[in-house]
Write a structure and sequence with these properties.
Elements (H helix, E strand, L loop, with lengths): L1 H29 L3 H7 L2 H4 L9 H26 L5 H26 L11 H24 L1
């Protein structure tokens, strides 16, 4: 079990990196502010202060750390619920897992943290796509870790 959790932590970090790169690439294409989006990830820890101009550097650091911490936690869940499969099946499961993470974050985690408002105005298609990309990245991370 400890090995699965370790593998999941690494895979979640890979998924977090993949989804962060996706966000960095897509934000200019979609005309959104990637820095504001990163600062929104700090809201559960810093509150609305994360969006105030004087707190930009701290909010970016906390938001980035929060993104990767949550990615690692979900990666550990992925490792516990996924089983050895063909690479294609694992990637497909990763995409479905990413969609499930999106539902859990939007419908359960953010409301419990009192931060559901941070997703107001976000395109559902974009948010779902970003989480599917995370799931695929996490699946690729698991495949990579398990082949080492």
């Amino acid at each position: 079990m400890a090995r699965r959790l370790r593998d999941g932590a690494i895979a979640g970090l890979v998924g977090g990196i993949v989804s962060a790169v996706w966000g960095l690439v897509m934000s200019p294409v979609l005309g959104t502010d990637v820095f504001r989006e990163t600062r929104l990830a700090a809201v559960p820890l810093l509150g609305r202060a994360s969006l105030e101009p004087g707190n930009a550097a701290a909010a970016l650091l906390v938001g980035g750390a929060s993104h990767f911490g949550v990615s690692i936690a979900w990666g550990m869940v992925f490792a516990l619920v996924s089983y050895p499969a063909s690479p294609l099946a694992m990637i497909g499961f990763g995409a479905l897992f990413g969609a499930a993470v999106w539902r859990m974050m939007y419908d359960l985690v953010l409301p419990i943290l009192g931060a559901a408002w941070i997703v107001e105005g976000f395109s559902t298609a974009r948010a779902l796509t970003e989480h599917v990309v995370f799931g695929i990245g996490t699946a690729l991370g698991i495949l990579w870790v398990r082949r080492r």
